[in-house]
Amino acid sequence: MRFRHPDGSTVHLAYCTNVHPAETLDGVLAQLRDHCEPVRRRLGRDRLGIGLWLAKDAAHALVTDPFALRALRTELDRRGLEVVTLNGFPYDGFGAEEVKYRVYRPDWADPERLDHTTALARVLAGLLPDDVTEGTISTLPLAWRTAHDDDRAARARTALTKLAERLDALAELTGRSLHVGLEPEPGCVVETTTDAIAPLTAIGHDRIGVCVDTCHLATSFEDPHTALDALTRAGVPVVKSQLSAALHAEHPHLPEVREALAAFDEPRFLHQTRTATAAGLRGTDDLGEALKGDALPEAAPWRAHFHVPLHAAPAAPLTSTLPVLKDALTHLVGGPRPLTRHLEVETYTWQALPPELRPRGRAQLADGIAAELTLARDLLTDLGLKELP
Hints:
Elements: E1 2-4, E2 10-16, H1 25-43, E3 48-53, H2 56-64, H3 66-78, E4 81-87, H4 111-127, E5 134-139, H5 150-174, E6 177-182, H6 193-203, E7 208-213, H7 214-219, H8 224-234, E8 238-243, E9 245-249, H9 255-262, E10 273-277, E11 280-284, H10 287-290, E12 302-308, E13 318-320, H11 322-333, E14 342-345, H12 362-382, E15 386-387
Parallel strand pairs: 2-3, 2-14, 3-4, 4-5, 5-6, 6-7, 7-8, 8-14
Antiparallel strand pairs: 1-2, 1-15, 9-12, 9-13, 10-11, 10-12
């Protein structure tokens, strides 16, 4: 979906396909048929943006076979879909029964991460619509925090510098300008937008910036305006933003609240949980840990890294952090010039929701994704952006 910003530029809205992960190119093609096109039809749109997630095997197949890349581009066009952004965070196995910590491997100290992201950039350059010259890729925020010593930090910095050089060369070769954004996430080396400033200014290249995920922003209790203003002052570009909402528990000391939270403690994904105290942020790596004994203080609200559907907040006594998303979006695109032109709805946890909240079959999932995109569209038009055909 495309929108005209009051400054005349085009803002793109997509949804991320990691919600129905596929490891192979055939699986990606099936996604387009079984999921993405039905969402487009529900929205009554001739064209729908998708933030494509390509696992390592699918990316390798596309980058080594020009015919396969052309075939994917043709299939996107045939189904009324377009790609201006890729999710390069998960490397593979995102559809596994247990993802948890494996999603952070390989990290930016490992050569595989640079090779994979370079492949994604080359693929994206070939998938961009004819009238679009800028593409974006989100990636993990350097590494999970443990075992990331000075040597690995230096290797990560070198890899990202090489990536920026490769993106420069790709732009010169193809005329397509691509940017990569580190996606701050609780528990990682770059947990917050503040944490992103030092490593990115050390790299000092505008092709490498930040992907602001509004669920992660909220989970870490960051104020959107303060966070985004700090990035602007530091000269760190917001490459893209993922529109998502976290799980919020206002009164975690109450038994009924803890019972409601326990329903979201599931075995597939990591749900880092945080609370803001006078001494600073406190947290656990997963929701189940937070619910054990006195692992976290209970005097202040808790937030968990669980991407809940934008249009459907959980039932009381829980809520979502949709207000944080709205505040962030106002700052991102509500000003005289957008801080980013690529927005991506990223609720990948539909099938990890408590059983009674999960969609039953493809049709209900398509209904839910279409409802999320409708909400995002309405937020954008309320900010003065005009939806384009």
